[in-house]
Amino acid sequence: MEYKDLLDIMGMLFDEDDKTDKTDKTAGKFSKGGNTMRKDFKEINALWDKLLEMDLFTKGELQLITNINGYSVETLNAALFARYGYRDLEQMMDYD
Questions:
Q1: How far apart are CA 31 and CA 12, in angstroms?
Q2: Residue 86 lies in a domain
Q3: Residue 57: domain span
């Protein structure tokens, strides 16, 4: 199986509208302290969109990394750190 085939398979697990992982049946239901994750989903969706808008990652890269490590701000921040050395997008924007 080639890398492109893997990305195609990973892409099938995601809904283009909300970018939530179809394999995670609890996504969006729970968070620390028992609060709903609506705010968290707004934050991660905004971060996801910004990373794509700034051409820091491709959609396939983000889909792959979030499928492996989970759809969370922490996962996207880890990807930013691995590629660019910044702890989060805010730190990257402050530095530039």
A1: 26
A2: yes
A3: 1-11+38-96
What distance, in Å, lies between the first and last C-alpha atoms of the chain? 39
Both tokens of 72, joined, read 């969370």
Residue 72 lies in a domain: yes
Could you give the angle at the alpha carbon of 28 between the alpha carbons of 23 and 33, nearest 5°?
130
- Residue listed under structure tokens 């970018």: 19
The total of structural domains in the chain comes to 1
Half-sphere exposure of residue 52: CA atoms within 13 angstroms, side-chain side: 13
Q: Would you give per-residue pLDDT tens digits along the chain (96 residues)? A: 565 555 555 555 554 444 554 444 444 444 444 444 456 668 999 999 999 999 999 999 999 999 999 999 999 999 999 999 999 998 988 886
The verdict on residue 25 lying in a domain is no
